[in-house]
Amino acid sequence: MAGGDHELKLLGSTNPSPFVTRVELALALKGLSYDLVAIDLNNKSDLLLASNPVHHKVPVLIHDGKPISESRIILEYLDDAFPSTYPLLPSDPHHRAVARFWAAYIDDKYVASWGSVYVGKMEEERAERMRQMVAAVEALEGLLKEGKKPFFSGEIVRLVDVTLGALIPRTKANEVLSGTIVIDDVRTPQLAAWVERFCELDVARKVLPSVDEVVEYIKMRLAQRATAADASKK
Length: 234
Description:
Oligomer: single chain
Strand content: 5-15%
Family: Belongs to the GST superfamily. Tau family.
Protein name: Glutathione S-transferase
Helix content: 55-70%
GO biological process, one term: toxin catabolic process
CATH architecture of the largest domain: Up-down Bundle
EC number: 2.5.1.18
Keywords: Cytoplasm, Transferase
Number of helices: 11
């Protein structure tokens, strides 16, 4: 794999993280070699605390000793730092801006609805979050339909595809746990076909965690939260 004289280290997690997966997908697409350091987020290392002193979260990419935090920022940084490798952003300024908009939309509208779907205290709150999730999916369906291309930015996988593609295992795990299918062949046929295409990519087969692994992790986290909530009532 490429990498030249650059040292790349990725601080990830001992548990499946779609945000770490984003960076792994981008690094694989760009053919960049790196060292993956799995961090136990229940016992955060000094390296993580020093590398991301504000949020203490993963992923963090350390490039030649300099840390970069937040998955979407890391993806754009990789394009800037390694411009001769696989481009995640198109060259046209307008197309780049549009890609950034939709990448942010995925996190702000789709990912943001996850938590309360499962741990919201009120049924009405969970139902509203589910409606928001479905609305975000339908907007992405419309984007694919408008573009009439196999991927969001055209014929090849780019920023928006990587941003959303890393979420596929979590999306499928959410569907298993909630019993509600948010991406299906009837309501969102373009997006369902995109999911299949993305999962057939070599980089996706290599990097994406299994749905079963993600389901078990979410169950564990929900159980931990339930235990903590019970303890706080005593």
